[in-house]
Specification:
By secondary structure, the chain is of the alpha/beta class. The protein contains 11 helices and 9 strands.
């Protein structure tokens, strides 16, 4: 992988975006062509998720399990970096992967692959709220949210750029205390397109996002917050997000690499069918 960026270089770029009153945009990209186009479109950073492979296969966003998610993401690095020239590439890192009991080794593997930062995804938080039986069981096994927070803390201590997905005010506070460089309240699985999730109304999703941002502000009033998912599936939807929350940007995965592809291919084939022989 080439053209890696230091944490300070990424933060400087983000500060310039904010000074221009533009939204911070992270683009989930699981194939070279998508990453290449996202860079042309002006993405501030490109995020590589193992779960993106499910979107490329035409399915809803689906985790590939704890057993190999990091290996998948590490293997995806070369394809993405080959066509991305000047945009930081962030790796989706999973603390619950039992193949990587040593968190420092796991983080170093991502840096060695050439990723310029990490984001905690897949995350244990996507499996339920605190107190949920599954989360509690994983916590008791040493592979719960506490380990995830510790992983992000160690990355910060290594001066690695970090983005933290959070799913509740309690989770948000813990990631803000590290502090993660960008906090991303998650509004749930993305709706829309051929394989979208059922999402809450925008009003409810925006309230959920703002509740997490408020919790973050108690810990760090200068924290940079963006948002992701739920009913915010199209570019036009983000204006509602900005008007009704303090989010300063958006991270898209399905909304970047699934829904636009679905539309483009379907409409192009329809146009080819319009002509008569």
């Amino acid at each position: 992988m080439k053209n890696t960026f230091t944490r300070n270089e990424i933060l400087s770029r983000i500060e310039e975006v904010r000074e221009n009153n533009e939204p911070i945009i992270g683009a989930g990209c699981s194939a070279g062509i998508i990453a290449k186009c996202a860079e042309y479109g002006g993405a501030d950073f490109i995020i590589v998720y193992s779960t993106g492979l499910s979107r490329l296969k035409g399915h809803p966003t689906t985790p590939y399990g704890d057993m190999d998610t990091n290996d998948i993401t590490l293997q995806m690095a070369d394809e993405i970096s080959e066509v991305v020239d000047d945009t930081p590439i962030i790796g989706g890192i999973c603390a619950q992967d039992p193949n990587y009991r040593d968190l420092d080794e796991l983080i170093d593997d991502y840096l060695d692959a050439g990723y310029s930062g990490i984001i905690n995804f897949p995350t244990i938080a996507m499996y339920g709220d605190r107190g949920d039986r599954w989360r509690e069981m994983r916590e008791s096994q040493g592979f719960g949210w506490t380990r995830e927070v510790e992983m992000m803390k160690r990355a910060h201590e290594k001066d690695v750029f970090t983005i933290a997905y959070v799913w509740s005010p309690e989770d948000a506070k813990e990631m803000a205390e590290i502090p993660a460089d960008i906090l991303c309240p998650h509004a749930g699985g993305t709706s829309g397109g051929k394989a979208g999730y059922e999402a809450a109304p925008k009003e409810d999703a925006a309230e959920k996002v703002q509740n997490m941002i408020d919790a973050i502000g108690v810990v760090n009033e200068d924290a940079i917050c963006v948002a992701h998912g739920g009913p915010f599936a199209e570019p036009e939807d983000t204006q509602y997000l900005y008007d009704n929350t303090d989010a300063k940007g958006f991270i898209g995965a399905s909304s970047i690499e699934r829904i636009p592809v679905e539309k483009a291919v379907e409409n192009t084939v329809k146009r080819y069918k319009d002509f008569k022989i």
